[in-house]
């Protein structure tokens, strides 16, 4: 098996070659075809097997703990986009962490932890780096949930590393982030390559698809190419095309899929665009299976993402229902809070606590490799009607 650095480089180079000559698709045209719904969603492991239910003893970790911790004034940070196009993502994460902090503090009169939010603004590396410097310059802050996006991690990671500040990202998926040699960065979901490998294994072994059309979007090239490479000959080159917001080539994409008549289609883009595309394909006569995938359950896929009491508390406190990244923020914030309660009250100590941590959360089991990747990442595969 190739090392991660070599594998990622190979995937990226092949992706560039593949994308250069692909057709494109947009959201306009064939508007009479109704968008299709998601009819099933399952969590799978790296081998493509459907993940079993967690054992009954796997109770999600509770930041309230036993309520006996005593500590000096300390804080944790959340570094996410709170303005701009990714503000909704940042708000989900921040609110999840805040809920965990509030639950902790209500149980620990002698250990009150403050949450300090920092806005990375998502679109600006300079803003992200500035936020990172503000985080590490605060001597009371021991760890951070975030950054949210891979670009922000690239801009902030070396600053956190130099300060020994542990950073738990709930949503950054670029595979190369854990190849930088940082000891302080830990990822809270499967990276793009791991997602692609898991999806391809699922399509091949669990679904039993002998021939697959792999449709990609440029921003997910790494994951899409991992799907294509893992499928090997099962990825039909005649209908493996790039989807983009352009009026050119739209009919060509739909026609190529229909003409190819694959056993399944995998689309590496957002669900709204997938739903429209499925409707267009169904209207053109394609009725085989159609899938998307992501590193967390999709919106509405988990009716109670934080458990009854916590979901109700979140909804009341923030005047909106929790989303998938709310649960991720809650889980990762809980890890940092449990570390502080255990006595890890310096940055190096909290980093080592995270490195040795194993515990259940609302989304998954959290345990990390030496490189900062999850030992058992899960991927959610969505099938459309």
UniProtKB/TrEMBL annotation:
Signal peptide: none annotated. The keyword Repressor does not apply. The keyword Signal applies. Residues 74-309 form the Leucine-binding protein domain. Keywords: Signal. This is Branched chain amino acid ABC transporter substrate-binding protein. It holds the Pfam family Peripla_BP_6. It comes from the Bacteria. Belongs to the leucine-binding protein family.
